[in-house]
Amino acid sequence: MSNRSIDLSDALYDYLLATSLREPEVMRRLRAETAGLPGSMMQIAPEQGQFMALLVQLMGARRCLEIGTFTGYSALAVARALPADGRLVACDVDAETMAIGRRYWDEAGVAGKIDSRIGPAVETLDEMLNAGEAESYDFAFIDADKSNYDDYYERALKLLRPGGLIAVDNVLWGGSVIDPGKKDPDTLAIRALNEKIKEDDRVVCSLVPIGDGLMLAHKQTDYHS
Ligand code: CA
């Protein structure tokens, strides 16, 4: 027994999946196809997809935002948890990987809930803000290029309603965050955002050691962007 988060051995991780993962076949196949692609490490873990779907359902979220969609596994997990009139805006620079996702979204019957936007996400988010969409989203998942993480966080915070939730992926960055020799822009950006969120009075936070680390930042219910 321990009063810190447990280390997951391979066997214990297998047990976790065997006893809790409810992954539909269409999601399992998307994961298998993605595993054969360059950049497959960018795909989230299946238990993380299930966790995010649970959060979305728990919040009763209807409008969601995703910054960094890749082949669409997380988008599929979130879209399945949304009500029929729910919407997910999925941002990515890569139309090819987004097209892979769309095949599976179609098959799963959720493509109508997903509005994909191809292009640099900072521009897409600024367009949304300029269109008057501030404070209209319930949930935002940030999982794109790490050097822009702070830009994504600030824009997502504006787009969220008070009481909305941001989930930031890869915040433990394979352990690089504690390696003093790692000074590349991605690692520096992740460290800086983690430290900022810890002190950010606009949100309540928790760093969940699932996948590569998921920082949850819940926008204060009395904070208006
Ligand atoms: Ca990621």
Q: Any overview of this molecule?
A:
By secondary structure, the protein is of the alpha/beta class. The chain has one domain: Vaccinia Virus protein VP39 (Rossmann fold). The protein has helices at 10-20, 25-35, 46-59, 73-81, 95-108, 121-130, 149-159, 185-199, and strands spanning 63-67, 87-92, 114-118, 137-142, 160-169, 203-208, 214-219. A seven-stranded mixed β-sheet has the order 3-2-1-4-5-7-6, with helices on both faces. Residues 42, 44, 143, 169-170 line the site of calcium ion.
CATH architecture field: 3-Layer(aba) Sandwich
| Topology pattern, helix = H, strand = E | HHHEHEHEHEHEHEE
Name the bound molecules.
calcium ion
- Please count the helical segments: 8
Helix content: 40-55%
Given this structure, which CATH class is correct? Answer: Alpha Beta
What is the gist of this entry?
This protein is an alpha/beta fold and 225 residues long. Helix content is 42%, strand content 20%. Calcium ion is lined by residues 42, 44, 143, 169-170.
Which keywords apply here?
225 residues, alpha/beta, binds calcium ion
Task: Annotate the secondary structure layout.
Elements: H1 10-20, H2 25-35, H3 46-59, E1 63-67, H4 73-81, E2 87-92, H5 95-108, E3 114-118, H6 121-130, E4 137-142, H7 149-159, E5 160-169, H8 185-199, E6 203-208, E7 214-219
Parallel strand pairs: 1-2, 1-4, 2-3, 4-5
Antiparallel strand pairs: 5-7, 6-7
Helix pairs in contact: 3-4, 4-5, 6-7
This protein binds calcium ion.
